[in-house]
Amino acid sequence: MDEVTQVSAQVTELAYALDTFYFLVMGALVMWMAAGFTMLEAGLVRAKNTAEILTKNVGLYSIACIMYMLCGYSIMYPGAYEGGVFQSLATLGSGLLGSADNSADTVMAGDAYYSNLSDFFFQVVFVATAMSIVSGAVAERMKLWAFFLFAVVLTGFIYPVQGFWKWGSGWLNAGGFLDFAGSGVVHMCGAAAALAGVLLLGARKGKYGPGGQVNAIPGCNLPLATLGTLILWLGWFGFNGGSELKVSDVGEANAVALVFVNTNMAAAGGLVFALLLSRFWFGKADLTMALNGALAGLVAITAEPLTPAPIAATLIGAVGGLLVVGSIVTLDKLRIDDPVGAISVHGVVGIWGLLAVCFTNPDATLKWQLIGIVSIFAWVFITSFVVWFILKMTMGIRVSEEDEYEGVDLAECGLEAYPEFSAAAE
Amino acid sequence: MKMITAIIKPFKLDDVRQAVADIGIQGITVTEVKGFGRQRGHTELYRGAEYVVDFLPKAKIELAVADDLADQVVEAIANTARTGKIGDGKIFVSELSEAIRIRTGETGAEAV
């Protein structure tokens, strides 16, 4: 091998290492979004339901990881396993996924530019994100184990099927539906599953009164909710930044930088406009709306963080921030009780994000964006509804009225999040 | 002797403490309390939904004073705690039949 060939081979290997490293670090950032969702939800529920929501979040994350390894990944990316769906189960004994990673020859031939396992790692944390969305919406009244069983089905089957449609090169991808990092595949998917659950579950006791009355049930810890939002904001750089999939040349590096900037700007736009709207609508600056506004901005830009200029990204986020405030109030009018605003943030704004792709990406068509929205929503909502319904008819999905009053911490976990504080009044 | 009990706005507590100290009062007892008077509660908004705050936080101060100081103390509290807006609170004055300093066993005006 002459010197030039040798150097060129080393550069190729380095590029492979860099792209893999980038993918893994981005994935680790997305994993940290689990902490964000956990803290956000812990802050927006009442103190008596905190330990249970923490348990739900760590549990669902772990369940998502295991289910996605067992069958989710192979459903979503059938090509990743020779033999396709469920092949992963058969190969459990012989080093799951590991045996399929790339050899140096494959890399030299230009057939792969990052480790297959890094791809699995990046994908698995996305599934957990989708499932995290559900936990907030059904908080304070759902049975813990019914929730976990639902998590098994969503992360193992429901999510991967629609994920295959888009990212596994399925029919939505072939048609021209665009969803860069998952406004639809991840966020609207989670929201649709949450909506189905909330409709079958009903509102928290005392949330709605007679004659259209809506009662506030303030969250117990706004510093935690704020920390959670900022953690999500940070994690989102991995979520969107990693979805570029490659960083090792000038074009790709610039693209990743633009995605970071746009992601950040959209969150800022969403927060400012949600804060302004709540100030003018309600008279005071509602922090929780501002937090939802930042997340709405992030969800809105997730469908296309690469083609807008930063100012356009800010505007796309700002519209998300305005939408989320209106949506939260509207859902309350419809008596759809969502303690953390997950359905509004991830569902309503997820749809906005998918539609907004048409403004900046000339490859997008309104027709295929709509087809994508309708088909993903319908698939996830209907299958989730069926699963929730079966759970409701068999083990039940809602805790007893007494347990709900006492708090699900004691009823489901047998412990309290803050045992040394005297119980706060209702 | 008189027992003076005043319910005031919490943010006025430091001023009131200073004002009665200036008169020569050597001890007061303070409690954080909640309640309502003519001010009633008020409504707040959380995520667009109203909730009613029925009981508002106030500071309750209690002072045992000699008879000749009572009027002066009441005046000092009233002048200091007054904002002129609803919710300034109330002062109650009652007869105090006995006071005992536990450490020395002194009684009456000597003890307050």
How would you describe this structure to a colleague?
The complex is a heterodimer of chains A (426) and B (112). With 426 residues, chain A is an all-alpha fold. In chain A, 70% of the residues lie in helices and 0% in strands. Chain A has a single domain (3-413), classed as Ammonium transporter fold. Chain A contains 16 helices and no strands. The radius of gyration of chain A is 22 Å and the shape is globular. Chain B has 112 residues and is α+β, with helices and mostly antiparallel strands. In chain B, 23% of the residues lie in helices and 37% in strands. Chain B contains 2 helices and 6 strands. Chain B has a 4-stranded antiparallel beta sheet with strand order 2-5-1-6, covered by helices on one side. In chain B, strands 3-4 form a two-stranded antiparallel sheet. In chain B, a hairpin with a 2-residue loop joins strand 3 (42-46) and strand 4 (49-53). In chain B, helix 1 packs antiparallel against helix 2 (67-81). The termini of chain B are close together. The chains are: A mainly alpha (426), B alpha+beta (112). Chain A binds chain B through residues 214-218, 278, 281-284, 286, 288-289, 325, 328-329, 332, 341, and chain B through 44-51.
Secondary structure blueprint with pairings:
The complex is a heterodimer of chains A (426) and B (112).
Chain A: H1 3-44, H2 50-76, H3 87-90, H4 104-108, H5 116-137, H6 144-166, H7 171-175, H8 183-201, H9 222-241, H10 250-282, H11 287-302, H12 310-333, H13 342-360, H14 366-394, H15 401-406, H16 408-413
Helix pairs in contact in A: 1-2, 1-5, 1-9, 2-5, 2-6, 5-6, 5-8, 6-8, 6-14, 8-13, 8-14, 9-10, 9-11, 10-11, 10-12, 11-12, 11-13, 12-13, 13-14
Chain B: E1 2-8, H1 13-23, E2 29-35, E3 42-46, E4 49-53, E5 56-65, H2 67-81, E6 89-95
Antiparallel strand pairs in B: 1-5, 1-6, 2-5, 3-4
